[in-house]
Amino acid sequence: MSTSSPSNYSLAQITLHWLIAALVVFQLVFGESIAHAERALARGRAVDAIDLFLANAHIWAGFAILALMIARLGLRIRHGVPPAPEKEPAYAVLVMKAAHFLFYVLLFAAPITGAIAYYLLPEAGEIHEAMKPAFIVLIAIHVLAALWHQVILRDGVMKRMIRPIP
Ligand code: HEM
Ligand code: HEM
């Protein structure tokens, strides 16, 4: 971890944040297609063409998230992240740190459990699927917190994830 805190997120960190966020939303919205495809194959039925396309996209997007997360973790260790706004109460800083940490855990665990379920051990699919509600709850809290900062506190936190201002 970088010892001194930078004053901003770098352009690369911002780009990775939004790219990964878009891919995660895609995975959550269309993830059921790969489950449908697997079920059809297991029952010896033909796989729907759209499900087949989305199932392949699920695997590619999942591995893309894993590769991008490795780059993101590397940047976080080298560049660091800006400190929480000065007026932020200690409990809110703690919740923010826990939420960001959980995001990192989920963003590595989801592609890894998905790959294990797909290539090695179909039973791991249950653990993989359980990550869907975890992601949804975390994203809801995260987006509400971002909107709270933007609309109520107006402390510029949202801007830090839009462009690298000094
Ligand atoms: C949907 C998937 C999303 C994921 C997985 C995600 C994940 C994260 C993570 C892990 C961080 C911590 C920064 C880091 O360590 O790289 C972060 C920061 C941030 N995110 Fe998201 N995010 C998502 C969506 C969003 C959305 C939709 C918004 C806006 C409405 C948003 C706004 C922000 C802001 C403003 C920060 C900076 C917080 C700060 O300054 O400390 N994120 N996000
Ligand atoms: C961050 C990356 C990923 C996310 C967010 C994600 C998310 C999801 C979601 C939401 C579902 C549907 C769950 C349901 O039907 O309720 C699913 C199913 C599935 N995913 Fe992923 N996934 C990711 C990466 C991967 C990867 C890399 C693979 C394979 C190489 C994979 C393989 C599967 C399989 C096989 C299923 C069906 C599981 C079953 O039916 O038991 N996923 N995923």
UniProtKB/TrEMBL annotation:
Keywords noted in UniProt: Cell membrane, Electron transport, Heme, Iron, Membrane, Metal-binding, Transmembrane, Transmembrane helix, Transport
Recorded GO CC terms: plasma membrane
Domain Cytochrome b561 bacterial/Ni-hydrogenase: 9-163
Cellular compartment(s): Cell membrane
Membrane-topology annotation of the record: Multi-pass membrane protein
Keyword Iron part of the UniProt annotation: yes
Residue runs in coiled coils: none
Cofactor(s) the protein needs: heme b
Pfam family, one: Ni_hydr_CYTB
GO biological process: respiratory electron transport chain
Gene3D superfamilies documented for this protein: Transmembrane di-heme cytochromes, Chain C
GO molecular function, one term: electron transfer activity
Keyword Transmembrane helix: yes
Primary localization class, coarse: membrane
Entry's transmembrane regions: 55-75, 101-121, 133-153
Recorded family membership: Belongs to the cytochrome b561 family.
The protein's name: Cytochrome b
Organism: Stappia sediminis
